[in-house]
Design brief:
The structure is a homodimer.
Chain A: E1 16-19, E2 27-28, E3 34-35, E4 39-45, E5 55-59, E6 85-86, E7 91-92, E8 97-101, E9 116-117, E10 122-123, H1 133-146, E11 154-158, H2 160-171, E12 178-182, H3 190-205, H4 221-235, H5 238-244, H6 263-278, H7 281-293, E13 312-318, H8 326-338, E14 343-348, H9 356-359, H10 361-383, H11 389-395
Parallel strand pairs in A: 5-8, 5-11, 6-7, 11-12, 12-13, 13-14
Antiparallel strand pairs in A: 1-4, 2-3, 4-8, 9-10
Chain lengths: ~400, ~400
């Protein structure tokens, strides 16, 4: 069905790669270490207008990648946010130039722990430096510059993508006209850290992990699968699991005494086993750690978090999301308001849990389409001198 | 401080062991398999009165054991529910004869997968049959009989203990005068199954697990520790974690790049590492599976679940418990009401999450003390011919 509606997809796409080529060709990381050269995988959909004012950056969650829409050669499934990106969709490729960037530390074409360290000719493994959400955004800013874009119309993302959105607002206040953080938080809370830590422990408990030095040998697949299973539970809700699986038993015969009896067990195992085919365990460690370190409130008062931010903001949360509960999104709104930032809050009544940001397409389409239209026209206002920067400046003398 | 108040504890205790000695000396399990001989570890506190009418059975949760109160020789920490069991406490040992029974399938003195199979002279391992909550309760009923007790004043337990309480009501309606299921459910829901399954997968992913045949060799400690860490997250709440840990960093130096930075990580690792010293990984598999199979609603209408039950019931739930949410306790109450069973519901406003059943001592003491007093005096009524069995019988012709 999805294939049949191909006129509504962006069609065939190719992942591209951007490598910092200009000197110094490396990034000073938050940790103080330098890393380079750095490659980011990215895709673009739609066309950049002559004014270069219609660029929207899409940033992904923990296990995402640059392939957000359309079809890669030989693949039957479209990108991870294909429902939202395309002609006439929420992120309308007939109006906007969509850039989807993979994160630093990832394993889908960008520089990460599985990349070759030019100093040694070997894979980085745990020699790869700790990277943060801020570092990821710094690298993305180089990509955006390389595309000749001074200012993004918007940055959009959910979950860890939402953290990148918030970091963009803070790190590059002059380069973001609108921001859409979805199902995210100002800082990782201890329960979120705890779930990440369990995933990391599962990976590091795998005897194949070998302190991250497993490339070329057997992979820590079992540990990574367990990490992914934990993740999937947190992405759903009690209610959505009850609706999807109930206590239904699997049809297949039990392979063993502790085989998957229940459908929910089979689902988790399937998700875990699939994930290890496409994701690097070390990247899982580094990226979850980046999320855990994320804390825009660190050593700041809440009213100062978005001081100087000029973007208008649409914050979206979901009622049944217990991993990134709505109160955390409300805290983002509060921080915006206290800083005089124009923020709108929408809480979508969904039972899908955290996964809702990928599933509540209709509601998100409606919200984002309208918001981007306003942001785009507001951008025009600004060029004609009706910007409200003066007013905002009063809030941040 | 706890030691100083020794007059309020039951003092020094010893774990006892009951083995089915009479023929056939074995149990027909729900699976159809027979198991025997069976030993149950148990402890008793207080004195059984001459009428044998003051016995209260305490049943434990997943990782509990028979040692619920007082001090074992050489140990500094008291039993797991010492706050509730003792002279003048909620389960008052000056009034009641408390029996605390370990579960079948466990690893703390009762027959389980780590026991020696008399047929082979080797440890059972995965040759141990699947046991259910009903099987655990069947074994306990033999223990209660062996103590000469025809009818229990009450059965009390939280979490998996609560499932045993509900099963006692259903399996032995004439032998339970009062029941206190705490923070539990009529049936394991898919989210609960999912968390258990992740724990099992973590154990089975450990290369030391060897299909359960690890006795005498290195133990699957890393996998079991991960399972326990997952468990601990689900026992707390977002709020209690925020209060207990916040984003505070550990004071110690980082042992490595993915060492424990945050206090919450250190806590989980500590809990995980401690658990493997006292618990058998195979028992973890069997007991979680017993919980997952628990379903009093299976092939029954909700009004029939407690048909014929004569106990009066006190159902306790906790507001922040998201592992066994209050709505599941409300469903127990509903099933009681529909069957004409006298049920009282109390929802305690706690931020401790599922752990609240071990921590909200003051509230529970108040509720349970009052409820047991009423149940005990009601028992007297019954002997004097003022029982309401006739009325109840009308509900279940």
């Amino acid at each position: 069905m999805r294939m049949a509606g191909s006129t509504q997809t962006v069609g065939n796409v190719k992942t591209q790669f951007f490598t910092f080529a200009e000197p110094p060709g490396e990034l000073l990381l938050e940790s103080g270490e330098k890393l380079g050269p750095i490659t980011l995988a990215y895709e673009t959909y739609g066309r950049l207008n002559d004014e270069k004012s219609n660029a929207v950056l899409v940033v992904h969650a923990l296990s995402g990648d640059a392939h957000a829409a359309g079809f890669l050669e030989g693949e039957k499934s479209p990108g991870w946010w294909d429902d939202m990106i395309g002609p006439g969709k929420g992120l309308d490729t007939e109006k906007y130039f969509i850039i989807s960037s993979n994160v630093l530390g990832g394993c889908k074409g960008s520089t990460g722990p599985g990349s070759t360290d030019p100093r040694t000719g070997k894979r980085y493994g745990l020699e790869f430096p700790i990277v943060t959400i801020k570092d990821m955004v710094s690298a993305q800013s180089r990509l955006i510059e390389s595309l000749g874009i001074q200012r993004l119309l918007a940055v959009v993302g959910g979950s860890m993508g939402g953290m990148q959105v918030l970091q963009w607002m803070v790190s590059y206040p002059d380069r973001v006209r609108a921001a859409i953080p979805i199902a995210t938080t100002l800082k990782h809370a201890p329960q979120q850290i705890a779930f990440d830590e369990v995933g990391r422990q599962a990976i590091m408990a795998d005897s194949n992990w070998k302190d991250g030095d497993y490339y070329g040998g057997p992979l820590p697949s079992k540990g990574l699968a367990v990490a992914r299973m934990v993740g999937h539970i947190t992405y759903m809700s009690d209610a959505s699991m009850a609706q999807k699986f109930g206590r239904r038993l699997k049809v297949e015969e039990r392979p063993s005494k502790f085989g998957a009896d229940f459908e929910v067990e089979g689902y988790l195992r399937y998700r875990g086993d699939n994930f290890v085919k496409r994701f690097d365990a070390n990247s899982y460690l580094y990226i979850t750690k980046a999320m855990d370190y994320f804390d825009l409130l660190a050593e700041r008062r809440i009213q100062d978090v978005f001081g100087g931010v000029r973007a208008r903001v649409l914050v979206i949360a979901f009622k049944s999301d217990w991993l990134y509960p709505a109160y955390q999104s409300q805290e983002i709104v509060r921080a915006c308001k206290l800083a005089g930032v124009d923020a709108t809050y929408c809480e979508i009544d969904s039972t899908y849990g955290h996964d809702a940001f990928l599933l509540e397409v209709e509601e998100e389409t409606h919200l984002i389409r309208h918001f981007l239209r306003t942001a785009a026209s507001n951008g025009d206002d600004e060029r004609y001198g009706r910007a409200s920067n003066g007013i905002r400046a009063q809030n941040h003398p």
